[in-house]
Amino acid sequence: MSNAIISLQDVNKWYGQFHVLRNINLEVAPGERIVVCGPSGSGKSTMIRCINRLEEHQKGHIIVDGTELTNDLKHIETIRKDVGMVFQHFNLFPHLTVLENLTLGPMWVLKKPRAEAEATAMKYLERVRIPEQAAKFPGQLSGGQQQRVAIARSLCMNPKIMLFDEPTSALDPEMVKEVLDVMVSLAQESGMTMICVTHEMGFARKVANRVIFMDRGEIIEQNSPDEFFDNPQNDRTKLFLSQIL
Ligand code: ADP
Ligand code: MG
What we know:
Elements: E1 6-15, E2 18-28, E3 33-37, H1 44-51, E4 59-64, E5 67-68, H2 73-82, E6 83-86, H3 98-108, H4 114-127, H5 143-156, E7 161-165, H6 173-190, E8 193-197, H7 201-207, E9 210-215, E10 218-223, H8 225-230, H9 235-244
Parallel strand pairs: 3-8, 3-9, 6-7, 7-8
Antiparallel strand pairs: 1-2, 1-4, 4-5, 9-10
Helix pairs in contact: 3-4, 3-5, 4-5, 5-6
The protein binds adenosine-5'-diphosphate and magnesium ion (MG).
């Protein structure tokens, strides 16, 4: 793929002796939406954390929007500007209001004036359907609302790529839908490149161009969502799907 916005080429990573990523090859086209699934411990988080250098790979190449991730801090900074990340546990600053959580990065990293940062923040809070929560602290919000703040916070940095690491798995069941709904409309309206680790099959079928299945540090299988869920090929994929469905 010559126009890939994310390219992983024979990526390998070890934690000490433990070989956590094995010869990962993945090319993501601009605007493509990928869902990553697989058993716990298979390396899903590690793989997506390597894409914005929260983890370092030891072998192979990772190229994001034309910049290769090396130890060069300039490259890491460049890539972090392009890549937003949403975590399982929200990671909001508890001592800042919702609005302050959203304006911190734009003001201090992107050097935006406060008024502009606040206007952008309110625009994205509306997009995730909680503008009325702007003055509250994260601890005063439900889990689903906090995760929507986290999504809005990433969007305020105007990333080209969004990475989601199990964004709904820490939520009570009744809050999963409100977060998935926001992610679906983001996917459908923004045309942004997205990689999302999730086992939410409905979400995958609705928005993913491709589903990738990982097991023991390898990409075992990938396909369109319908083919992947309805007609899995590999025995490990079949076993995994029989456990989550
Ligand atoms: P997943 O997201 O698919 O559940 P992870 O990428 O979190 O998997 O972890 C893959 C494997 O690497 C697991 O066996 C985990 O215990 C191990 N691991 C993750 N982070 C570290 C770390 N910082 N140090 C050592 N081992 C780790
Ligand atoms: Mg994980």
